[in-house]
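Q&A log
Question type: sequence-to-structure
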Amino acid sequence: MSLLYILIGILIFGLLVAVHELGHFAAAKACGVKVNEFAVGMGPAIVKKQKGETLYSIRCIPFGGYCAMEGEDADTGDPRAFTNQKAWKRFLILAAGSAMNFLMGYLIVLILFSGAGGFRAPVIEAFMEGCPYESADGFQAGDRFLRIDGKRVWQYYDVGDLLSQGGEEHDVVVRRGGRRVRLEDYHLVPVEYEGQERKMYGFYFGVDEPTLPNKLRYAGATTMEFVRMVWDALRQLAGGKVSVNDLSGPVGIVDMMAETGEQAESVSAGLYDIFYLGAFIAVNLAVMNMLPIPALDGGRIFFLLVTALIESVTKKKLDPKYEGYVHAAGMILLLGLMAYVLFHDIFRIVTRR
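Response status: OK
Response body:
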């Protein structure tokens, strides 16, 4: 069964990359930019077909892909080249890849939630006996948590997670009877309850019905929760709490998917978990690609904004080749990092077995 999960993992990851490049491709075509090649995969081509001005190809390595546009990093003199387009068109094309990944992550979650029997909601349905936080000046049954210490509550489990990150005084915003109620500097800590093995806040959360609007809303909430998880991981990496050795590349991601499927109680549960992880990875790719790092879409957008600002002041068009040099250097560094992560992933898999 592990082989099945590995193949599914490869398929999902390849699809995520293909969808990303499809976003660039569709936006480029819509903006009238000449696309020389649209490729799924990397390495030598298995299948290729020229259709109009664009070469479509499927390549042998199922990780990666690209949308090769005319004049991406240099002025080729073609009026339909990428560098000759207005700034808003270039921005749209660059952002389209991450937008497609985000949308795919949302759609995967929505499909997974289509058969849900209900959704645990961040709404207080009742209180445990003796809960000290039930009062006219505190919390009341029916309160829906909106924010805790300035952070959005997307899921019911965010309540405990966000409260545990701060001290004992919290700023909480709830919706009560159609209006927003703010509890400022509210003393809120877990306490002991009879029959419970650990300290708890004492809230019983309610359930939202599996209506179509709720499915759409909770799919969106889950997707935004993924975004927060990625940003939290990036902050931990920047703060030294997570090392580069904890990063995973394509091989590590596929192995993670296969391991996730193997740990499930059934094939159906394994597939559900793999696709749920795939949705998270889709959102992860969307966020990571928008970081202002050379060679990534976010880095290109950053240079686009800086270039537009400089050109608006100097009234002179900058030579795009210099930006190309920066992205080429960034790509070399990224390839080096990817090679290190790939080696570490393989080493981790081999030593684990």
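Response note: Residues 120 and 240 are 34 Å apart (CA to CA).
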